[in-house]
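Comment thread on ticket #2218

A.B. wrote:
> Attaching the input chain for the structure job we discussed in standup.
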Amino acid sequence: MHVVIISGKQNFASGGDVKEFAPLKSKDILFGNYGNVLPRFRKPVIAAVNSYCIGGGFETAMMCDIVLASEDAILGLPEINMGYNAAGGGPTRFTKLTGKS
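C.D. wrote:
> Ran it. Output below, let me know if you need it in another format.
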């Protein structure tokens, strides 16, 4: 069996530059082509999270089949605190993975 391992050299993924999303309209973000690849991937995908894993990087990790995080991993969805929509469905996906409480 083959697997895919996603990792980063210094950080797993610190997401996109929030300033780039500011001029976009909500419908462009909601209906854009974000996060459509991993859920349809046929091989198991493992996220090896080290250091920062925030925003779109955290959403990508949550789409993986297995997430392994180092002790210094920092995970979060900071765009929520800035009033931006988490385009990859981060809050919904996080609630499904962890439960409401």
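A.B. wrote:
> Thanks. Noting for the ticket: The CA atoms of residues 10 and 51 lie 7 Å apart.
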